[in-house]
């Protein structure tokens, strides 16, 4: 988290800003059928890349649930519009009920969401309507984003993960989430409630997140460097590390071929 944590009003203000901007980007994407289809192809390709990069985390008894939460609930091809709309509805209540630290975790998650949506929109335009392979993806990655933006994306993953770990340790948070299920469903907030419970369960099971988050940060930073250096095979060996946790579409996927080709 930041050196100087946000106060309650600052965090609530950021929540409203990020939700408004994410909603704007998603509405723009939904309004253009061609862009919407191309964006979905990109998201599926990226999701497959993440699965190939983190087989050890996904298979880990300790880290598997948290890895699936990151890949499916924080970043994935699913449509998060309903969840975000539910958050927007209850920002005033959240800002009254939650401590500033909890609001800041939500704000950082939404900042990550907004940054990912922004970068994906640019990449979608750069890639066009065709199938995606590793070579095309790498070129679009470089032309549609700066190194600083991609580094911030990785930094936010770590901040969100460490913030979630801190929230899991709050007294009675699990009981509170369980008691909220009925009222949340009655109020039309079922998707948000499910998201919160999945995140809580994943991080509660994992415990100390340092090894998990460092694995993601290290691999994503290494891949970032290879992509910006224009390495001939930037995805080669991207999932060969080990994090056992015993004591993270259309077109050619990153690991299908050492010499990527279009389908």
Account of the 3D structure:
With 263 residues, the chain is an all-alpha fold. The protein has one domain. 71% of the residues lie in helices and 0% in strands. It has 12 helices and no strands. It is globular, with a radius of gyration of 19 Å. The chain starts with 7 loop residues before the first helix and ends in a 35-residue tail after the last helix.
Q: What is this entry, summarized?
A:
The chain contains 12 helices and no strands.
How is the biggest beta sheet arranged?
A: none
Q: How many β-strand runs?
A: 0
Q: Per DSSP, what share of the residues sits in E-state strands of 2 or more residues?
A: under 5%
* Helical percentage: over 70%
Distance between the termini: 42 Å
Uncertain segments are 247-263
The rough form would be described as globular
Structural class: mainly alpha
Q: Please give the count of helices.
A: 12
How big is the Rg?
Answer: 19 Å
SSE run: HHHHHHHHHHHH
The average pLDDT score comes to 84
Number of domains: 1
